[in-house]
Amino acid sequence: MDELIKLAPPGVANASLVGALRLGPEAEAGPIGKKQIQEAAQTLRDYKAGKANLENRIIQEELWYKLRHWDTIRRDEGYLRKCGIKKGELYPEPSSAWLFNVLENKHADAMDNFPEPMVLPREASDEQSAKVLSSVLPVVLEVNEFEATYSAGWWSKLKHGTAVYSATWDSRKDNGLGDISVQEIDLLRIFWEPGITDIQSSRNLFIVDLVDTDILEQQYPQLHGKVGDKSSVDVAQYVYDDSVDTSKKSVVVDWYYKRQTPEGRTVLHYVKFVGDYLLYASENEPEYAQRGYYDHGRYPVEFDVLFPEEGSPAGFGFVSVCKDPQMYIDKLYSALLDHTVKATRPRFFVATSTGVNEQEFLDWTRPMVHVEGTLDDTRMRQIELSPVGGDVFNVLQLKIEEMKDTAANRDVNSGGTGSGVTAASAIAALQEAGNKVSRDMIAASYRNYVQLGKLVIELMRQFYDETRSFRVTGPEGAFEFVQFSNAMIAEQPIGFASDGVTELYRLPVFDLKISAQRKNPFSRMEANERAMELYTAGFFNPERAQEALDALEMMDFEGIDKVRKRVEQGATLLNIVQQLQAQVEQLMALAGVQPPAAEEAQEGAAGDGGRPQAAPTSGAGGRTAADGIMESRTPRSSYTERLVSRSRPKVED
């Protein structure tokens, strides 16, 4: 019997022989052995055959993205006939970037609205846990450099119509402590059951990777000389500019599948194998045999689709939609360039009897050309090309406009405006009106982000056994450190069933609300202008709090809850100050001391012939409690504070 290798492979955690390689009779001891691996490899090949058209489309779309679409056209005879080009014919091949501009602008819109999660509890008892999760979840994603992952995913979504994200547990992180890994998966490396629309409905899910054979043999010495064969699956490759050699690499397969337990639960199992050799199988481990590899029981991937299509979890992107207009734009450019080049190199009709030295005529370095006899239009005449008609330019412009309209990429979305539009607010309004397609795409990504965030929370619930420290951003923008473990979100005992024996548990459940981290300068400018308008309208004047609250009930904008809370705080503070003023006046009346306002009124009446004077109002330069509240919100300097302290009256006993 071969020796067991106690070496954990990537992504496996918390098992004594996790990743142990079994080559002899030990390999057949569990439910997953060599026979099951061979069957899985055949299933993988079947899945790849059903995905062949999608892979070919993805490889071609990558060439269109890199402005290398003429390479595709030259290889496709159908495209050549469609373009009216004979195979092998020399023709200008311009590559205009109208399609690339579409992808570039849509990607910029997505990154301007990078998602920010907020965790909400479903029960009041989980409010504190949700608050901690709201601060910890962004840190976990930041450690995984999720912004770069999100950017790469959006490029795939725009080009190919689908971005695939995975959330898995990586036991190698943090010096063996383990942590969550969030990555983007290449569409050419993932395989599912053909014909399904929801990836969770697939019977099996395969994720393959090419690993250097020598590194694999170093980790698993028993594999020496037995790997390197890619017979299990031939991984499709992009058309690279560099020469990429995969002959020294082996295909390592991550196989996920679902099983029904006797209790009726659906559990997820995980297998890693290379060739016919098993590296790890969760179903063979007693700890995971009935429990499953991940407690959430879902495939650890999420598909973010741009334009969905029936019968596939993947969709199609802007390259599929816009490549035909782009092709005809470049073909018209090619015709125009060809005509221009020919016009700059004149040709001549020459009679056979004309004695022109052809070599001297074609050599522009010769100052003189020798001829025999007389030259006139009957013996030698230049071939004149007809100018390009205006219809060609009109069709070219129509195709460009078609591209812009189809992709919702009008000039205003790129910062350009029509004639007469100069006001910043008008430009911002036009951009917002033209961004409805981008908003729809971003909203779809937010829905996918919610599911990805829930996968991350479930991994925290399963694997965060040890207390971890996270540096988070506090409410005022300052750094804070919080302690977190799965004890805050794990199953909690709530008592016993009616039989008095069965213990009952509750599982804290959370919802995710996604908001955008606004990076667009126009969005920030709009928010600043709104704040100034609210302040000018008196929304923050405590005396007009009720009016402001009534108006806010009819308004809707981002951050309205914070504004409403601020107005309510001002109204509460005003009520407190008015109550304190009333108490002070009562105490002064009991002590026989006149309020300062009454004394001023009496002095004014004495100086004005005894006529009573009206009490000063805020409109007449007087001060009210609301004025004091508004002034109290203005910070004072230390010098001002010293003056105030010296000016306080001393009350004698």
Structure, briefly:
With about 650 residues, the protein is of the alpha+beta class. It has helices at about 35-50, 50-65, 70-75, 75-85, 100-110, 125-145, 145-160, 215-220, 285-290, 320-345, 360, 390-405, 425-435, 435-465, 520-535, 545-555, 560-590, 595-605, 625-630, 640-645; strands spanning about 115-120, 160-170, 180-185, 190, 205-210, 250-260, 265-275, 275-280, 300-305, 305-310, 315, 345-350, 355, 370, 380-385, 470-475, 480-485, 490-495, 505, 510-520.
Helix and strand topology:
Layout: H1 34-50, H2 52-65, H3 69-75, H4 77-83, H5 98-112, E1 113-121, H6 127-143, H7 146-160, E2 162-170, E3 179-185, E4 190-192, E5 204-212, H8 213-219, E6 249-260, E7 266-274, E8 277-281, H9 286-289, E9 301-305, E10 307-308, E11 315-316, H10 318-344, E12 347-350, E13 355-356, H11 358-362, E14 371-372, E15 380-383, H12 390-406, H13 424-434, H14 436-463, E16 468-473, E17 479-484, E18 492-496, E19 503-506, E20 510-518, H15 521-536, H16 545-553, H17 560-590, H18 596-607, H19 625-632, H20 638-647
Antiparallel strand pairs: 1-20, 2-3, 2-9, 4-5, 5-6, 6-7, 7-8, 10-11, 12-15, 13-14, 16-17, 18-19
Helix pairs in contact: 2-3, 5-7, 5-10, 10-12, 16-17
Provide an overview of this structure.
With 653 residues, the protein is α+β, with helices and mostly antiparallel strands. The protein has a domain at 323-428. It is built from 20 helices and 20 strands. It has helices at residues 34-50, 52-65, 69-75, 77-83, 98-112, 127-143, 146-160, 213-219, 286-289, 318-344, 358-362, 390-406, 424-434, 436-463, 521-536, 545-553, 560-590, 596-607, 625-632, 638-647; strands at residues 113-121, 162-170, 179-185, 190-192, 204-212, 249-260, 266-274, 277-281, 301-305, 307-308, 315-316, 347-350, 355-356, 371-372, 380-383, 468-473, 479-484, 492-496, 503-506, 510-518. The strands form 8 sheets. It has a 5-stranded antiparallel β-sheet. A hairpin with an 8-residue loop joins β2 and β3 (179-185). α5 runs antiparallel to α7 and α5 (98-112) runs antiparallel to α10. The longest helix has 31 residues, at 560-590. It is flat and about 130 Å long. The N and C termini lie far apart (100 Å). Mean pLDDT is 80; it is low at 1-25 and 609-621.
